Structure formats: structure tokens, C-alpha cells
Amino acid sequence: xxxxxxxxxxxxxxxxxxxxxxxxxxxxxxxxxxxxxxxxxxxxxxxxxxxxxxxxxxxxxxxxxxxxxxxxxxxxxxxxxxxxxxxxxxxxxxxxxxxxxxxxxxxxxxxxxxxxxxxxxxxxxxxxxxxxxxxxxxxxxxxxxxxxxxxxxxxxxxxxxxxxxxxxxxxxxxxxxxxxxxxxxxxxxxxxxxxxxxxxxxxxxxxxxxxxxxxxxxxxxxxxxxxxxxxxxxxxxxxxxxxxxxxxxxxxxxxxxxxxxxxxxxxxxxxxxx
Length: 274
Fold this sequence. Notes:
The chain has eight helices and ten strands.
């Protein structure tokens, strides 16, 4: 299958819309099911026997096996890239999705704002609704993407962070990430005034170094502590620190994120006053 793609939007392998936040709206993530194996079969790059073998593997083993195929045959990489691009095009155009409907594209994953696509299967390729979120924030110097779900009916809360690896996110779970969960829940369920008060109270405690040291680990890809060096402008990084080190920490990373959040909610408040 070959698809003519003239609109540069459909050619975007990785893309995030210039949106800083979405609150209390549905964001649905659609991924190609078993993308690598199904795309290669569709494009005729592997036999049915090879396909059946790949499908029998768990996702990690399948990823490794396809990686070996790519190493032995560079054309496999091109085939995968072109096939995913073609399927994205079909999915978007068949469901009349425009750039305004798309929050993010991550190769074979597409994050859609509010709309529900009706056509999700093309030959052996199926886009499945992997996740649903109800809020989105883009924060920090590296513009970390945070996808948040609160399902009031089933009392389910979930958060996914793009830009920080899972093993690093685990270091924030009882600290800064926990506060973000409370804040994002408040933004959806409580009054705007209550949310701003919650944020300001936390900000003041953070600034005064009144919180557990775990809150001062930088919420970014490195997820380290920055230590100020006396008499010089540079800092050095540390993975673990004791409570007695708080006075030496450079707290600007998370402080700037809190200021961004204050800016978001005060902007919303100002718009409501107009």
C-alpha cells in the first residue's frame, strides 16, 4: 500500500501542539496495535511465518527481534517508517481529524482532543484506544508533557509523564509528583480559588524549605539535586541528599514549574473575570 501524502502535518513523526494546558477535556491516545509486526506484514517485508512468530512474543521480545531484523536489513527501518506514516495519514483523514484536533503525535501513537474516531481498522492495522486522560500540562525548561486522568465514576486517578523515564519518575512519587496529582485533581474537581490557594500555600512552604528534601529533587529528565557551590556560579549534581543539605540546594527548577502553574491558573481566573 502506498499513500500520497502532500500535507506536511501528516508527515510529522513527533509533534506536540503549541498548547500549555488542557483541563477537564477528554484526551484519547490511539496506538497501532503491535505496530512493528503488523506494519511489516502489511508492507510485505516479512513472511506470514515470521509474522506469526513475532506476534507470539511479548512486546519487549518482539521489539528486540524487529531490531535484529533492522540490523540485518536496513530496508526494514525504512519500511516501518513509511508504513507508520501511511497509517497515520489514513487514520487522520478517514476520521476527518485536523491539526486542531491533535494534541500530540509519538510515532505510531496519536493523542486526540475530545473527538472519538469511528474508523480505526485498515487491513490488518488497528488503532486501539490505549489511554484516556482528562487534563494536560506542558511544564519546565524541557517542556515536560504531563497527561492526567481522573475518572470520577470509577474513582480512578492516573498520571503519565513524557520526558522523564519511569525509573526517574519513581523518585518523585511520594513528593513533587504526589503534589501535582493533588493539584490536578483540585483543578478538575474544586473551585478555581481553592486550587490557587492550594498552589500558593505549597509554593510558600517550598520557598521556605519547609518540605521533605525529596520535594526538592528536580522534576526533569535527570531528576537530580542541584547543589550551590559557595563563591562560584556553577552547581554540582547529586542523586541523594540528607535533610541537613536543604540550605545548599538550588531550588529554582521546581520553583519555576510552580510559577508556571501559578501563571496558568491566574490566567484562567483573569479570563473568567472578563
